[in-house]
Design brief:
Blueprint lengths: L1 H21 L9 H21 L7 H31 L5 H24 L1
Helix pairs in contact: 1-2, 3-4
């Protein structure tokens, strides 16, 4: 239960930082120094949530849950990036980082699948 609470807390902090960073309603209007600090905190939270908070599976059931979570996260990322690509395509202003992220996600998925089927 404590591990679940820490994961929820890390995800919540990350969402708050990401929303604060994009400031969709222009409520914060931070100065350059505040924006740099907010960006640093957000990057730290992303690295912490993505790489440091380790998931350990102890049996097959936990491994299946972990694989399902990874699959849902991948599909969600592909879906959001595809919608962003469509919206920006209709506005004739496609951000290249959306293309890079979408390409990296697809290529890394294909490469990981190829490696797993060939060597495992």
């Amino acid at each position: 239960m404590n591990n679940d609470l820490s994961r929820i807390l890390v995800a919540g902090v990350l969402v708050v930082l990401l929303v604060s960073l994009c400031d969709p309603f222009m409520l914060l209007m931070p100065s350059a120094v505040q924006m740099a600090a907010l960006l640093a905190a957000t990057l730290f939270a992303v690295v912490w949530a993505g790489f440091v908070v380790a998931e350990q599976s102890h049996d097959e059931r936990e491994l299946v849950h972990r694989m399902h979570a990874g699959h849902i996260a991948y599909l969600s990322g592909i879906g959001v990036l595809t919608v962003a690509l469509l919206v920006q395509g209709f506005e004739h202003a496609i951000d290249p980082w959306i293309l890079v992220a979408l390409g990296v996600m697809v290529v890394s998925k294909v490469a990981a699948r190829w490696y797993s089927e060939r060597y495992h």
